[in-house]
Structures are given as C-alpha cells and as structure tokens.
Predict the structure of Cbb3-type cytochrome c oxidase subunit.
Amino acid sequence: MATEHKEIDAVSGMATTGHEWDGIKELNTPLPRWWLWIFYACIVWSIGYWVVYPAWPLITTHTKGVLGYSSRAALAQDMAALAARRGEAGRALAEASLEDIRKSPDLLAFAMAQGKAAFGDNCAPCHGLGATGSKGFPNLNDDDWMWGGTLDAIHFTIAHGVRSDDPDTRVNTMPAFGKDSILTKDEIGTIADFVLSISGQTPGAGADLEKGQQLFADNCAVCHGEEGKGNPELGAPNLTDRIWLYGGDRASIVATITNARAGVMPTWKNRLDEPTIKALTVYVHALGGGK
C-alpha cells in the first residue's frame, strides 16, 4: 500500500518521496544535474546520428544517412586498395614457378608475408598459429611428411586436400584391423609391441617381437614398408622416427590399428586464389621441415 505523506528519514536525514511499500520508504534522491545534462545531450546526439549515418532498417534496405557512409563499403574500398597495391607482386607470384619464387629475394619476401597471414587465417585453427600441430593435426615444423615435403608435394596437398570433396584429393585407407575382424585383439597387441620396438621404445615384458615382425610383414609392410619407414606416395607415415600423429604409446597404437584413422584436410583451390596457395606453399616449406 502506498501513501503520499512526505517526511524526513531519521537515518539519512533526507526527505522521502511519500511512497512506501511494506514498510520500505523511498528516499527522494534525484539524479545529479550534470548526469541529466549529459543524458539529454546524448539524446540530441543520437538524433543527429540517425540523420547523418545509416540507422533505421526498412523493409528491404535501410536509411543511408546524409553522408552515405557504410562500414561495408569502406571495407570494400580498403580491400580494393590493398589488392591494387598487391596487384603487381601478386601477378608475379601467379606467373612464377615455386622454385623461381624461392630463388627471388623480393618474391620470397612477399610470399612469406602473404603466406604467414593466410596461414593464420585458414590453417592455424587446426595446425596452430606456430604450425606445431596437435593430436590428429600434423606438426609442419619437423621433417616428417605423410604426403611429401617438396614444394610441389606441399602445393598439391594444400590445393586438393586430404580425403576432401576434390576429385584429385589425396586418399589413403588404413584397414580397421580390429573393428573389421581382420586381426584378433592379441595379434593387434603383438603388432603394437613390434611398432614400439622399431620406434626406439621398449615394449612390455613378454612381447613376442618375432611374431610381431611377421604379422607386420603380412599386414602392414605393403604400405609402411618392410622396415616401417613409410611411403609418401601412399600417405603411409614413418613408424620409426617417434613422430606420432595420434600418439605413440601402446594404447594409442593399439587404438589406431584397431579402428584406423581417417583425418580430413579441406581442399583450398576453390577457397583461395593461386597466388595465395603458392604463398602458403612457400611459407610452409620454409618453416623448417620442407625438403
């Protein structure tokens, strides 16, 4: 119940508004004048903003404002200006071979700068900003390449991807030896012990490495090679260098043999232009692992 009787609050010494709810009285504390004047000025400013800049949505468009300014148009102008500045170098990059780019100091510097920017925008979400990779995403700084580390091989991988929707994409298929009942659980464990041994690790006690070697030769050597050093033409990784895409402990190796792996890399030829793909190729090649 509200009353209109005004009084002086005994605690604060401030007059009340006369409003009371369940014994709680409202103090009469108006906003400071300076705050009110700023508030009124903001209202006036907003009216001016509505007139000068795009502000009100319409059915199919919006008010343009007397200045005709648009952040989208400003961005388009900036991008056009950037493309114009890059035009000559970009055309030279498109026309030059990858080897010519690497041999030309000017083209190499331009390609490295553009490649680094493109890598951060497109590749870093999976490979990391420093290209160190993570589980399931290769480290691009080392000298371990599933599909080859030459300029041409890297360019092809970027352009066409791995297991992507591109008809020329890189594809390999590792059998799921356990899931598809090709090998028993014990046989998979025996192969895992052998893989541990050829990668310089120590398998568990009781590991039958002789049997593991035979099982490896019968089931794995066709892709990974008799010594387990891999085959870039097939995308089969080297199993002897202790560089692992999905983990090199026994449990991870058993999981890989049991269920197989099938990572996907998108094709970039329909998303990036050829100069950008070349710049990315040169940048990735120069990270320290290119051959």
Summary: The CA atoms of residues 176 and 259 lie 5 Å apart. The two ends are 85 Å apart (CA to CA). Residues 185-259 form a domain with the Cytochrome Bc1 Complex; Chain D, domain 2 fold (CATH 1.10.760.10). The longest strand covers residues 16-21.
